[in-house]
Amino acid sequence: MGVITTSLEAAVNWGRTNAMWPMLFGLACCAIEMMASQASEYDLSRFGMEINRASPRQADLMIVAGRVSRKMGPVVRQLYDQMSDPKWVIAMGDCASCGGVYNNYAVVQGVDEIVPVDVYVAGCPPRPEALIYGIMMLHEKVRREKIGQYGTRRAEKEAVRVDAQGREVAMAERR
């Protein structure tokens, strides 16, 4: 007979990483690459993400793909607030990360002005491989979390940035 020994935190975090349910929030051209990551060639279902949820109450991962306008900002925040804890956010693409080429009054210069972001995936638009690598970086981050952090983790959390080729890069200070 085999015996399995592990800690409660490791078992809970293993379950959370293998059963993340993403909520789709495709706002621009990055959404096409996000849809391609669900297709048979890349197959996000091997990470436990068979179904993309349309309801925030059934999702624990928000993938913001594309530019966020000032009018859409309150909607993004409302959907984020309706998600149950623990919840995570991936900013997919340059527009979601820092506003991209849209440096004007109508586009939010980074979705982190509205919701706390866990992983930034760079690229215009990023390839499905970069999104998958960003999800794997989020899995690593979730595996390191402590159970007691879930109520307070938003204030002092660290973000991870992934470039277009899927490599982790250092975070630069925002202006």
Short structural description:
Helices cover 29% and strands 13% of the residues. It is an alpha/beta fold and 175 residues long. The protein has one domain (8-168): Rossmann fold, CATH 3.40.50.12280.
CATH topology-level fold name:
Rossmann fold
| Biggest sheet statistics | 6 strands, mixed
The share of residues in helices is 25-40%
CATH class: Alpha Beta
In the CATH hierarchy, what is the architecture at level 2? Answer: 3-Layer(aba) Sandwich
Q: Give Rg in angstroms.
A: 16 Å
Number of domains: 1
Q: How many helical elements? A: 5
Strand content: 5-15%
Order of helices and strands: HEHEHEHEHEE
Structural class: alpha/beta
Quaternary structure type:
single chain
**Strand arrangement across the biggest beta sheet:** 1-2-3-4-5-6
- Report the uncertain regions: 152-156
Overall pLDDT, averaged?
Answer: 80
Q: What overall form do the CA principal axes indicate?
A: globular
Distance between the termini: 58 Å
β-strand number? 6
